[in-house]
Give the backbone structure.
Amino acid sequence: MACAVIVAACMGLSVFGAPLYGASSAAGDPYGALGVARMSGDVPAVAFDLKALDGASLASQHLAGKVVVLNFWATWCGPCKEEMPSLARLQSQFNPGQVRVVTVTADIQPIGIKQFLDHLGITLPVLFDEEQELSRLFTVRGLPTTVLIGQDGHALGRAIGPRAWDSQESIALVRHVLDRQP
Amino acid sequence: MSKPPINTQALYVMCTVAVALAVGWPTKLRSAEAPESSPAFGPKHVTVHHVKGVVGPSVQIDDEGMISATWVEEDKDTRTILFSRSKTQGGPLGTPVSVNQPGESPYYRQEAPALIVRGQDVFVTWSMTHPKMTPDKPFSGELRLSRSSDGGRSFGPSTLVNDDDQVIQHTFDALNVAPDGVLHLAWIDGREGKKEPGTFVARSTDQGRTITKNFKVDDNTCVCCRTSIATSPDGLVYVAWRKIFDGNIRETVVARSADGGMTFSAPVVVGNDRWVYQACPHRPASLGVDRLGRLYVVWYTEGADETPAIYLAYSDDQGKTFSEKKQLNRSKGTFPDHPQMAVDPHGRVMVIWEEQSPVRREIVMRHSLDRGNSFSQPQKLNEKHGQTPTIGVNQQGTVVMGWKEHAMPAHRLVVQTMQLPGVSVAEAEIRTNGP
């Protein structure tokens, strides 16, 4: 597998006993408005280097300084495929130099995935997490799961299940993170 | 005998790791040689696969103690369903043969093929890339049944299981053989075009040569949680799956057939977990039945409090009602995942599952000698990062466990047998409490 996942300091990634994330339901909270759970601020940055659908690899260092919307999905997951166009539309709302929507799958179907994305006119990067190491580091327990990562590389929020990623709430949340001072 | 391509075969390094957890390994597994309450472990047999990807395995053990395994290998852009059987009790596995024929292109890689071995008959179900797949329907497969009548030395052309012509997925399959020899199959497909797919079943009354008309058991099936199927000595057929109820509540349910799999009862909720989840959990239930008809169910849920857990419950009234659920996972530092269970005729129960954390991936097991009333302490089995555990048991209570380990740069498939302690405890429990 052409995948090297490097954990910067994941020994401190305490997700058991204490909740990794909590509900965000306060009024006016951009996380709560989209049903995105905040992740505790002490979650360390996770470094990765995964092979992409186009044959190249994408490393986390290439995303440094950007807000990253990291979407975990699979080809057998209906809700994942349904939300994919909205993720593409979310990306279109932002400068890729500031915000990157990146998808990750453990389901290695490169031909089918390429056909699927081409058919929908989607050009989002797809990373292959063949051994689910990155999924495990982000404690992905179901699909789709989308992790919102700040410019400093720290995971800030997590959405389990599909969302309308092109909604006003989604765009507002990403803007909120973009405006956040690391 | 059908063999994998030479270049693939050359990549196999068959080796045996003589790491026995018990001191000494008997030539023949006999419960009398094990302490009263301690299982006797066989050596771990490891096969190393220098290929791009491996999915599986699924394992079985016959009444002679021979173990069988099937799995998927992917190298470059070619996927192959492979089968291997040991020539000696407890392993190691023999030279693998290809289950799919030239021109039969396996589709999936998310699940191991389903496997049943009965004497010289070997049945394997798997998903084949749909011949009518088009760029606008890229994720489509047919459910296929492959059969060997020579103990897995060769497989013939596969038989199509699903009887619709929809270019969709037909997968997350399960199969079992009833005491009368009828082969029962279950799977998930969305042929009716509803938002959620359904749970479907079919049978084969001629050892896999032909498949009956498909029958829909129920709607609103969770799209990615594999089905499970079991048969009982009294001829009942049970199917389990995860059903979506109003409010996105996900419950493991069981339906029962009293007419040999032709029709099924309405599904019964097993654990009443009230797990609200709007995503794909991708975690199946597992079924087993003992000789007195107790139906055992093991499943994963996060419940109303969103805490990952593995539970067991049983039914003594043919799946109409279930016992209080018993939590099996104990670790505070990991998530339990992917439980699988095997039940022998005497009601000895073995459950195997993953314990995951961001940095660990362990295979652990617990066993019960008293029909699921109490369980041994959890015991770790793997050496490297272990995943996708699977389990089978024969009539004598000899268990085979299998899992995958990823150790760069190769994949390892590990199989290990275990002889459960004598049946006296389970028999006493049966005599005392009855079925």
Summary: The two ends of chain B are 45 Å apart (CA to CA).
